[in-house]
Write a structure and sequence with these properties.
The chain is an alpha/beta fold. It folds into two domains: about 120 residues, HAD superfamily/HAD-like (Rossmann fold), CATH 3.40.50.1000; about 60 residues, no CATH class. The protein has twelve helices and five strands. Strands 3-2-1-4-5 form a five-stranded parallel sheet, sandwiched between helices. Helix 4 packs antiparallel against helix 5.
């Protein structure tokens, strides 16, 4: 097995908590109505297009034309985004910072809308500690598309066989492996530490 020289972190649900239910449990208190709204209006597929670079203005207009009765809550998705990311995972952030402090090459690769990432960076200063980041909304590609892994590799001069990727989504882990990277599924900080040790990586 090639020695790992590059460590790449996902952000959402690896370093920062993300849950759209947090504001919407207040905005749409009935759980069945709320689930219908996420299944039919502000869906995952709709939201991921902002990660791919679509503007919120365009995204909202498209939905409002189809669901005019839900205009307020469609706009609430972006309006209350800050409530969806209430805190960092301090234990996994600590793992990342220890790796950086020990001299490991750490970068980040994330599916994130460009404007909300600017906000996240202001709120969570540790996001400035790695060598750099590829934000899907800025490069207009998303995981698990092969192109975003190749873009990140070229941008940061990574050797794919010597790179390990940490993500909470199995399909994104699989995408990294298809791009020739090593990859592990994030579950919690303790499991991550064990996974890194298995690859010979320690702070």
């Amino acid at each position: 097995m090639t020695d790992i020289r590059h460590i790449v972190f996902d952000i959402g649900r690896v370093l920062i908590h993300y849950d759209p239910d947090l504001p919407f449990s207040r905005l749409i208190p009935d759980p069945d109505e709320r689930r219908w709204f996420f299944d039919n209006v502000c869906t995952h597929d709709w939201n991921v297009e902002q990660d791919r670079g679509r503007t919120w203005e365009e995204a909202e207009s498209l939905l409002i034309s189809d669901h005019p009765a839900h205009e307020e809550n469609i706009r609430n998705f972006r309006r209350h985004w800050h409530e969806m990311v209430p805190h960092a995972y301090e234990d996994s952030v600590a793992v990342m910072l220890e790796l950086i402090d020990a001299g490991h090459d750490v970068t980040m690769l994330t599916n994130f809308a460009s404007d909300t990432f600017v906000e996240a960076r202001q709120r969570f200063p540790f996001l400035d500690r790695p060598r750099g980041v590829t934000v899907s909304g800025e490069v207009r590609m998303i995981k698990p598309d092969r192109g975003i892994y190749d873009h990140h590799m070229a941008s940061f001069d990574l050797d794919p066989a010597a790179t390990i990727f940490i993500d909470d989504s199995q399909k994104n882990v699989d995408g990294a492996r298809h791009a020739g990277w090593q990859a592990v599924l994030f579950q919690d900080a303790k499991t991550l530490e064990a996974d890194l040790a298995r690859f010979g990586i320690r702070p």
